Amino acid sequence: MEKILTKQSFPQWVKKLKSYNVYAPVKNDKDNHWNYETIDMNDPNVLDSNYLNTVLSPKKIIFPQREVFLEFGSQNEEGYDIKATLPDEELSVFFGVRPCDARAVALMDKVFSGDFEDVYYWKRRKSTTLVGLACNTPPSQNCFCLSVEGSPFSKEGLDILLVDLGDRYFVDSLTEKGDQLINVAKEIFKEPGEKDKSAVKKAQLDSEKEINRQIKDIKEIPLKLKEMFDSSFWDEESLSCIRCGICTYLCPTCHCFDISDEVIATSPLKGKRVRTWDNCQFPDFTMHSSGHNPRPDKASRLRQRTLHKFQYFVEKYNHFMCTGCSRCVSKCPVGIDIIDVLNKVNHYE
Amino acid sequence: MAEEFEPKIVAFLCKWCSSAGSDLAGVSRMKYPPNVVPITVMCSGSVSPLYILSAFKEGADGVLVSGCHPGDCHYIKGNYYARRRIALVKKLLEYIGLEPQRFQMSWVSAAEGKKYTQIIEDFVNQLKPLGSQTKLRRNV
Amino acid sequence: MVNLEDLKMEAKRILDEGRVKYIIGYQRGTNGVMSVPAFIKKPEDVEKLIWDPTCIYNLTRFLVDEKRRKARQKEPDQRPVGIIAKGCDTRAIVVLLQEEFIKREDVFVFGISCENTGVLDEKKIAEKVQGKKVKKVEFGENKNFIITTENGSIDVSAKEVLAERCLECKANYPVIGDISFGEKVASGLTQPFLSLEKMESLSGEERWRFWEQQFNKCIRCYACRSVCPMCYCEECVVDTINFAVTADTSAEEKAQKIKWVEKSPVTSENFIYHLVRAMHLAGRCIDCGECERVCPVEIPLRFLNKKLEKEAKELFDYDVGFDPEKPSLVSCFKDEDPEDFIR
Predict the structure, then answer these.
(1) ipTM score of complex
(2) Spelled out in words, what is the top-level CATH class assigned to the domain B9-130?
C-alpha cells in the first residue's frame, strides 16, 4: 500500500511502536559517524536531515558480531550439560535503512537459507522489519549502486520504503510486515495524490543522475576474473594493502564467521560456544592446523575478496555480492578502490 | 548478618626472594589475612603486563607484584627491568581510571616475612572500602 | 618550500643508478583528493609522485611488508628500498633501526621537511569547505594551505586544518635521511603533551567512563595494529593461532597456546587488547597518528599511546625515535629510575 506521512506526524508513529525495539541511526555528539542504536521513543528527531549512512549496516544487529550458540558445562560425571541459546524473537524495526544495505540483507538471506537454514539468523531476521529511506542524494561521493543492478530508490529487501519529499514522506509498504507496521497507527497516514507520485519519480531520476562513479561493462567481469586467477595483476593492486580488515567488517554483505569456545571455568567445566565475525583479509583466516596457509600474501587475499563478490557469488546465485554502498572505498586507509580495480580488470590483457 | 566483602588479591612473587619471604611468614606461623592467591614467578622481571591484566579480568580485586631488592636480584638485573615496566603499567592503569590502590609493587626479601604480612594486611584494608573490582572483569 | 621537481629528479636518478629496488612515495588517489601510497619501480614512473598536505600516511609500514616479502623469497634482491619520509615517519624508521628489525643499509631515506606546517585532517577540511568537493590542496608560501574546490581556491591558515598530531610535532625535519628536501625550521613547540592535560585533569571515574564508552565502540578490526609500523610481530597476543606452527608441531603444543583475549568484541576483551598494545608500544610509539586516523569507529587512540610517551619522558627522560643507537625503553634501566611507588 502507498501512503503519505507528514514529517510532523512521524514521531507519533514511532511512539506507537512500543511493542518493537526501534533502531535508528544515531550520532554521538563527539563522533562524526552514525550507528544503529535503539532510540528514545520520545525523541522527535528520529531521521535527522543530515543523515548520510551508518558505519556499520543493519548486519551489526541482524547478524551480530558475537552470537552465543550454546552454553556447556559439566556438573557431574554423567557427562556434559549443553543448552542451545537461541535468540529471543523480540520484534525489531530499523528506520533509515539505505536501499543498498537492504539489498545486502536480501543477499545474506540467500546465503543463510538454501540447503541449510541458519536457525539463529532466521529467528532474528523473521522478527525484523526494515524501513528504508531512499537516497535523494548519494550518501557518499563514491556510491555506485547503479553499477551493480541497484538503485538509490531500490525496494529489494525492504518492508517499507520512505521517500523524503520535503515536508512529508511517501510511504510505500511492500510486504505484510510493512502493512502491519503502518496499521499500528493508520489514522495518521494519508492517501497519496498524483503530485506525490510524480514527485517520487522525479526525485529518483534526479538522484540517479548524481551517482558519479561507475563500473563499466560489469556483465563481462565474472568471466574476466575467472581468466585472471593466476595473473600478477593482484600483486600490483595489493601493494599498499595493510590487511587491516576494515573493508570486510564494514561491508554489508560480507558474512564469514568463526566459531570458538569461550571457557569461563575449567572445574567444573563451564563455557559458551560463540560465533564471531571473521575476516578473509586477516593473515590467519585460511591458516591450516598443519601450518600451511593457501593464502599467505595480500595479493591472494585481495583476489579472494574480489572474486568472491564478483565471480563466485554470481556463479552460485546469479547476483553480484556487492550493493555499491562504497564503504570499502571511502574507509580504506590506503585508498584501495574496488571500483578502480574492477575497471582495470575490464581492460586487462 | 551481611557478609563483609573479602577482596581477592593475586600476588606475583619472585621465587628467590618474595616467595621465600612469604614462605617464612607461613613457617613462622605469622598471622595475616588469607585473601592472597600467590603465584610464584622466576623473577619479577618476568611478569608481563598480560599477567596483570588477566588477573584483573578473572576478577582479582587487587594485584601485587613483588621482587628482590635492587642489587639483590638472582638474575642480576631482572628487578630493574621490572621497576621500569611496572611503573608504566601502573601509570597506564591509573590513566584508564582503575583505582590506583588496586595495583601495587613491593620489594620483599627472603628474610622479610614480617614485611610481607604487613603488606598484605595493609593491602586488604585498602581494598575493603573499594569493593569488588568490576571495571576490567571479564564480561564474556 | 620543497621543490617537487627536485624530489622527482633525485628519485629518478637513484632508480636509474639501480641503487634501490623501488621507491615508496605518494601519488594521486582515485577517490577524492587524498593521496595514496605509490610504489615506483621504473624511473619514468617518478612523474606520479606528489607532495602536498594530503600526504598523510606513514609509509614506514611498508618497510615491514618488504621484510616479510624478502623472507618468503628464495634469493631476495638485497638492494635497499627507497622511502619518502616526513619528519615523523623518519622517527618510525629510527625505532625500527633501534630494534634491528631492519638494517640501515636496507633503507634509502628521502627525507622531507614539513617546514613547520604539516599534513591535513580530512574532517577539518570537510568542515572548512562545507561539503563542497575538494579538488586539490597545496602548500602555500606562508604557513598556509591553498584549497581548490569546484568553486575556486581559498587560502587557509595551516593551523586551522592541520592534523592534531602536527600541532604537537617533535620532528618537523627528518631525523635521518640519505637525501633531504626542504628547510630546517625551528619548531616553536613549547608544550609537547598539551593535548593530554584535559584528560589528566579529569577524575579517575570520569576517565573510566570515557574509555569504557570508547572501547565499547571497538569492533576489533585490528586496523590500528595493521597500520602501525611498530606492530610487526608475526604472532600477536590476540591471535589464537601460533604462526610458528609446522607439520611437526604436536597437537598438545597447539592446544597449549594461551588465549589471552577472546575473539568477541566485548568491553573486557577490548580493554585488554588496547592496553596490551599500548604497553607494547611504550617507548616505541612516535605518535604518527595513523591508528586514530584509520579507526572506523573513531576511537581516540592517540590519547592512550601518548600517555605512555609522556611517562617515558617524565619518568625516564626517554625521547622516542631520535637515536638509532639507543636501546629501547624497556630493555634498559638507570639506577635513578623512580621507585616511590614501590613499597
Answers:
(1) 0.94
(2) alpha beta
